[in-house]
Amino acid sequence: MRAMIRSALATAAALACTVAFPSNADAQRRGAPGGTRAPLTTVSVSLGKARYDARVDANCHVDERATRGNTRAYFVVMYPWFGQRPAADQPQWHLNLEIRRAARAGAYDQFTFSFVDGSKSGVIQTVAGSPRIGSGTVRVTTRDSGARFDVAGRTDKGVTVRATIDCPVFQKSEGVSG
Fold this sequence. Notes:
- By secondary structure, this protein is mainly beta.
- Helix content is 15%, strand content 37%.
- It has two domains: 26 residues; 130 residues, no CATH class.
- A five-stranded antiparallel beta sheet has the order 2-1-10-9-8, with no helix packed on it.
């Protein structure tokens, strides 16, 4: 019994330390004291007549392990970061853009875009081997340390979607093996 109590106390203490002393990646992500905060991502989305504009702490990264033949996304943009809830003073909507590696330079024809704000949502998916949802295109304009993504299309319900996502820098991927 004492061993179980000690184990529970040790687990609680470890959890408290994780919350009180976030890792460097967490500190950078959330702009905590002592961490260097990555520049904010500018997002503009129109979903039908609704419009959303904000500068948010999005996860923008490139996965070099993505190949044309595997299922990994090459460009990834997430807001909020995976597993995080946006702070109360931040937009409460969710955005995800995943783009497969191009077969030839600049031809990004396989992507998934999703946006959710309460009851309003829109999805476009043009990935081979997956159900096609809506239709659309994505244009990628790369620069030294980041990229701009322009999405245009329609959801499967016919709602017009336009999005511009400007990631000033790509963060390092925090995948399991790298």
